[in-house]
């Protein structure tokens, strides 16, 4: 029993590792058109893989001229390839928090939520509907974070006085 579980776990991680390698190869060689085919081959209909793979995909791109953040085209392509886009979108939403930051976390979340918001206008209804629901949740999360940051700022000002 333990051996079977170990084999399944190792197989799962090998698939994720292989998928991350394929994504990096595709991106580094500019073969983006082959990405959906590779995704389908490695992930099949296993929703667990479609949830895990976004951790190895570059999701956010900063547009330096405007200061905007947009979803990377490979992330959108990954989403369009997924058999259940809502599962992949939930995984994207889980990755809106940066691993490190300076300044306002709410501002970072806002930029990423705005990028997410662009998916509300996606031509596929399953993607736009799921994006709308997640965007609303992100906006509530941002509002709460802004309140926390304002409270912390007020406490800091009171200590300074």
Biggest beta sheet attributes: 2 strands, antiparallel
The number of domains is: 1
Q: Indicate the radius of gyration in whole angstroms.
A: 19 Å
Residues in helix, %: 55-70%
Average predicted confidence as pLDDT: 76
Shape: elongated
Give, in spatial order, the strands making up the sheet with the most strands. Answer: 1-2
Strand proportion: under 5%
Structural class, by secondary structure, is: mainly alpha
Straight-line N-to-C gap: 64 Å
* Topology pattern, helix = H, strand = E: HHHEEHHHH
- The unreliable regions are 4-8, 28-33
The helix tally amounts to: 7
Number of extended strands = 2
Description:
The protein is 68% helix and 5% strand. It has 161 residues and is mostly helical. Helix 2 (35-43) crosses helix 4 (73-81), helix 5 (85-94) runs parallel beside helix 7 (125-160) and helix 6 packs antiparallel against helix 7 (125-160). It is elongated, with a radius of gyration of 19 Å. The protein has one domain (2-160). It has helices at 2-28, 35-43, 47-52, 73-81, 85-94, 105-117, 125-160; strands spanning 60-63, 68-71. The protein contains 7 helices and 2 strands. The chain has a two-stranded antiparallel sheet with strand order 1-2.
Give keywords.
161 residues, 7 helices, 2 strands
């Amino acid at each position: 029993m333990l051996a079977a579980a170990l084999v399944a776990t190792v197989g799962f991680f090998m698939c994720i590792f292989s998928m991350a390698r394929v994504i990096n190869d595709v991106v580094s060689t500019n073969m983006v058109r082959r990405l959906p085919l590779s995704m389908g081959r490695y992930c099949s209909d296993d929703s667990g893989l479609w949830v895990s793979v976004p951790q190895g995909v570059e999701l956010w791109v900063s547009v330096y001229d405007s200061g905007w953040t947009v979803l990377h085209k490979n992330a959108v392509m990954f989403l369009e390839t997924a058999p259940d886009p809502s599962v992949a979108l939930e995984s994207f939403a889980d990755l809106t928090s940066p691993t490190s930051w300076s300044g306002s976390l709410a501002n970072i979340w806002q930029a990423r939520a705005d990028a997410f918001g662009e998916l509300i206008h996606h031509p596929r209804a399953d993607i736009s509907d799921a994006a709308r629901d997640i965007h609303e949740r992100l906006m509530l999360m941002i509002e709460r974070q802004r309140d926390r940051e304002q409270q912390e700022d007020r406490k800091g000002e009171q200590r300074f006085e």
